[in-house]
Design brief:
Elements (H helix, E strand, L loop, with lengths): L1 E5 L6 H9 L9 E5 L3 H15 L7 E5 L2 H5 L4 E4 L5 H14 L9 H25 L4 E4 L4 H12 L3 E3 L3 H12 L8 E7 L2 E9 L2 E2 L1 H5 L2 H4 L3 H6 L1 H7 L2 E2 L4 H4 L1 H10 L4 H16 L6 H14 L3 H7 L14 H14 L3 E8 L12 E9 L2 E4 L7 H23 L2 H10 L6 H14 L8
Parallel strand pairs: 1-2, 1-4, 2-3, 4-5, 5-6
Antiparallel strand pairs: 7-8, 8-9, 8-10, 11-12, 12-13
């Protein structure tokens, strides 16, 4: 089976390859094709994968290419993890927004809109190429903003594109462990959009154990979300929000922490990874050890500004484990390729799952996966406060898609202005001007 990875020079790719190395089932992935527009990054990551594969007799064969059509042609699965504009683009997204006093995070608020506007045209081009060159392939999208990009690609690939994210996986794992459940067997009632969802229940042996967690402040304080949001607020909600909802519920505090920080998260990652890739240009550098050391630092500093704003302290050692998107991707491929069936939290088209959204809206919910793809399970309606937020953000996503399709600057302004974290139409106009000024990829807006 052939897996093509778009964004194959990306820093997190060794997590995916490591999961493949542990898969010895019949019909497993035997060939991995890495595609990237940056040949130096491809070479660096290929060195890390070679170190990972050392001593593994049946390791999947790795080839690299900068030719997109060559990479796609003949693929059984296409894993999309591209970053349009690179980490310098992410750092610019943060700077422009913070200069206007609003959040510039990668997927949330103004930064997420800017990232979406320059990513959607590229993702649509990829979807069209896949439909033409590998019509039977399944696309697994991890490119952020994952829900928005998946919805853009679904307009050309239908249900053959499925979005994944490690945030719900990590949240479910932490809650399951503190409640004494096996993260691999519990059922997680999780509903929302990508980076905008709520864990509303966790069933162990058929019984919902979330009320037990919400009733115990000490137990709540033992998980990262409890320290981030505070036990009182979680009890008020009656659910455990995805960590990204901290940007909404504690927006002023987070924006202040971002503005006062020496470097934004994007700038930190830009500088950190520049050091890693520069080190990889040295022939004698230990590739896997250098990558692993860099990854550990990356995980330890995840959402550092939010934890600072909440007074949550450093991340606990048990929370430094990868969220597991690579395991979700592998489980998804197995279930489709072998009709082995699995229940996974995925980004898929809504259908009739959430009545407040139309059928084509991509949502993030538990899905039953088989040879025919991912099928969202029936879920209870969201409470009004969550419904309002989901509908508002989905409305913004639709304006982003419309702006990307039409090239309309006016529509782009509307997308920014309608976002709950942008507080003025005037600010929205200045944001568009600022982003067009720093991103050549947004020159299409007119």
């Amino acid at each position: 089976m052939r897996l093509t990875v778009l964004g194959g020079g990306g820093f997190r790719l060794p997590l995916v390859y490591g999961a493949l190395l542990g898969d010895h089932a019949e019909g497993r992935v035997t060939d991995v094709v890495l595609h990237d527009v940056d040949s130096a990054r491809l070479t660096a990551i290929a060195r890390v994968l070679a170190d990972q594969a050392a001593g593994v007799a049946d390791a999947p064969r790795v080839t690299v290419t900068t030719d997109l059509d060559e990479a796609i042609r003949g693929a059984d699965f296409v894993f999309s993890a591209i970053r349009v504009g690179g980490l310098e683009g992410r750092a610019a997204d943060e700077r422009v927004a913070l200069a206007e006093g609003v959040l510039g995070q990668e997927t949330v608020g103004a930064g997420g809109i800017a990232y979406g506007l320059r990513t959607v045209p590229v993702a649509v081009d990829i979807a069209r190429r896949v439909a033409r060159l590998a019509p039977d392939a399944w696309v697994i999208n991890f490119t952020n903003p994952a829900g928005l990009v998946t919805e853009a690609m679904a307009r050309h690939l239908g249900d053959r594109v499925i979005g994944i994210c490690d945030s719900p996986v990590g949240l479910g794992r932490r809650v399951a462990r503190v409640l004494g459940g096996d993260p691999g067997t519990v059922f997680i009632d999780y509903v929302g959009l990508n980076h905008l969802g709520w864990l509303r229940g966790l069933r162990i042996d058929g019984r919902d154990q979330l009320p037990r967690l919400l009733a115990d402040p000490a137990l709540l304080g033992s998980i990262e979300e409890g320290r981030l949001f505070g036990a009182e607020w979680l009890r008020s909600l009656g659910s455990i929000p995805n960590e990204y909802l901290h940007y909404y519920y504690f927006n002023r505090e987070t924006v202040r922490a971002y503005r006062e920080a020496e470097r934004t998260r994007g700038a930190f990652l830009r500088d950190q990874q520049a050091g890693f890739y520069a080190e990889m240009e040295k022939p004698g550098a230990p590739a896997l050890a250098t990558w692993d050391r860099t990854r550990a630092e990356r995980e330890a500093t995840y959402m550092a500004h939010n934890r600072e704003a909440a007074g949550a302290g450093e991340r606990a050692a048990r929370d430094l484990e990868s969220g597991g998107y690579e395991k979700v991707a592998l489980a998804l491929m197995r279930a489709i390729a072998h009709d082995s069936r699995a229940t996974l939290i995925l980004n898929v088209r809504n259908g009739t799952t959430l009545s407040v959204l139309d059928a084509d809206a991509v949502i993030e919910v538990p899905c039953l996966v088989d040879a025919n793809g991912a099928h969202p399970v029936a879920v209870a309606p969201l409470p009004y406060h969550a419904t309002a937020l989901v509908c508002a953000v989905k409305g913004v996503e639709r304006e982003v898609l419309a702006a990307a399709e039409s090239g309309s600057r006016t529509t782009a302004v509307k997308a920014f202005a309608l976002h709950p974290l942008v507080d003025s139409v005037t600010v929205a106009r200045r944001l568009v001007d600022g982003y067009v000024g720093v991103h050549p990829g947004l020159a299409y807006l007119r």
